[in-house]
Each structure stands twice: as C-alpha cells, then as structure tokens.
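Exercise 3.2. Students should predict the tertiary structure of the chain below and write it as structure tokens, then compare their answer with the key that follows.

Predict this chain's 3D structure.
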Amino acid sequence: MLALKVGDHVNTDMIVPGRYLAILDPEELAKHVLESLDMPARIRPGDVLIAGHNFGCGSSREHAPIALKAAGISAVLAESFARIFFRNAINVGLPVIVCPGISRLPDGCEIEVVGRVVRAAGLELPFVPLSAEVQEILDAGGLVEMVRRRLA
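Answer key:
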C-alpha cells in the first residue's frame, strides 16, 4: 500500500468542498476528494491516507468519509481525528486508526499495517487497535450493513 500524506487540521471542506454536497453518488464525490491538495489523480485503490492532528475537523458531513472510501482509500491513519469524522468514518465502513508518530512518515512511502503496528520507511509505529464493536461494524462494511445483516 502507498501512503499519501496530508497535514494537520485537514477539514471536511478540504476533503469534499461544499459545492459538491448535492452529489449523492459516492463515485462522483470521489472525483473531488482532496482536490484542493491535488490528490484525486494520485489516489489508487488500496492507498492509505496518513495525516497529522485533528483530521476531519469542521462540519459533520458524512460526504467526507464516503468520498474517501469511494476514491479507494483503504484506511486513514492520523495523529488524531475530529470526533465526529472518526464516528462517521466507522459508520460508513472506512477504517480510521489513531497512530502516534504517523506524521513522521514521508509522502509516497510503502506502508504495511500488521497486527498493532504500522511499518513504513524503516519505522515501526504501534497503535491501539479498534474495539471489538468498532471492528464488527468495519467488517460488515458499515453500520447500516451490520444492522441489515442482523435483521436478515
């Protein structure tokens, strides 16, 4: 997996600009994800987004994690997340991991998440794994899908 790096305080309007919020198709939203950072052309399916502090701050729009997931981002690893973004990401099935030190990694490096460790650029960065409940939601593909399966 390739690590695409963004900085601190990347807000939801940077992830998906407000002018695109009327778009309901995730694939169309994905075309505009992080466009102010020139990212759409760089993202390949399976890439990992690495960020600094307070990733996803700003409004509570679900469009942001939906667009990241639809663009092919397999996970977001950050020093810290805005609380509402973190929960929205889990709800739509986008893995988000708090990993101290992750912002030290260089842009474009190969990255591997193994157990409770991120390996990249000669570093091994431990992280606290997600709870069993959160992992269950992610494994189902999101909260709605988990509820559908339980009701079936």
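Discussion points: Helices lie at 12-15, 26-30, 63-71, 83-92, 132-140, 143-151. Residues 3-151 form a domain with the Aconitase; domain 4 fold (CATH 3.20.19.10).
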